[in-house]
Amino acid sequence: MSAAEESGGEAQPWAEVTPDAARRLLVAAVEAFAERGYHATTTRDIAGRAGMSPAALYIHYKTKEELLHRISRIGHEKALDVLRTAGRGEGTAAERLADAVRSFVCWHAAQHTVARVVQYELDALGPEAWAEVVALRRQVDAEVRGIIEDGVASGAFDVADVRGTTLAVMSLCIDVARWFNVDGPRTPDEVGALYAGLVLRMVGAK
Amino acid sequence: MSAAEESGGEAQPWAEVTPDAARRLLVAAVEAFAERGYHATTTRDIAGRAGMSPAALYIHYKTKEELLHRISRIGHEKALDVLRTAGRGEGTAAERLADAVRSFVCWHAAQHTVARVVQYELDALGPEAWAEVVALRRQVDAEVRGIIEDGVASGAFDVADVRGTTLAVMSLCIDVARWFNVDGPRTPDEVGALYAGLVLRMVGAK
Domain named HTH tetR-type: which ranges (chains A, B) (predicted)? Predict the structure, then answer.
């Protein structure tokens, strides 16, 4: 497996964040939030981890919440991108669903630290940032729901409750970020393959 | 639905914690940890929420970690108890698995605040407390794995990877605590029924 595959398809996470100092601060914030929680982390902690002064942090981010907002937005955009690339390919609904689950699971396993921060600190966002992130989450849901609806329409899937089944499929994939352990017995790809098979069963794929 | 059913089968959560002051402190700690995270919560915050002085807290709990340990142990013991009561009843492997999933999901939905603290703050426990809680988690896993193994042995289930499938089933149920919303469209019982059906599909129940 290449380094890019191990990081869930990303050769350089946060490459879009520039300049370099802003990116280092973001990476430091992810680590600090994951270790101690958002509320227990100070901007001083984050600056210290990045080897910078608190004053240098404020050049790039006005508040701690701005850091969380940026992490959460980029994290959701990446997850959505991974899902769309896989789920909108050629193939039957079953193939597209399997690909989408595999990619989404790989991303949550490989990027589990970012994913945990993004999932568990949602309530710490202010109202505007929260609304923006919730809109992205709805797009993520709609992507998976669309594939399931396609499969039901073509008779390939047998699903009584499309919304509930979509919720369960998303939940199963997202929770990989909670339990995944890099020292554990399974690679992100192996978890992805296992879960793709289980999800096809959940939708009653023929 | 009765009040006892709404609380996941518990008429009086934490009833085993005595005296009353110790129980009030525990309830206050769960709320504070869930809102702000373990590391951002002080014993002063917890005492204040319970309407007590910090000195009164130390009569019952020597440290903040002792509170988290107690919450985590009781939370895991309850979840294990709920699972065993349902999963060891009469009936086929499919009936027992459906009952176990339904009960476990109901508990995680109704007790989502406790369950979130228990799941997300595991790493904040000291080594001894952590080892004790991990042993309880292994028993929870073994309970579900045992039912799946029974079903495979009798030919009722078709499962290629029993450990992996057990992990996925547990993960699906536990993650209900993350997304469940008391103001949402589904009751704990409805989520339990939906999930019992999905899990029977995951194990290829005939």
Answer: 19-79
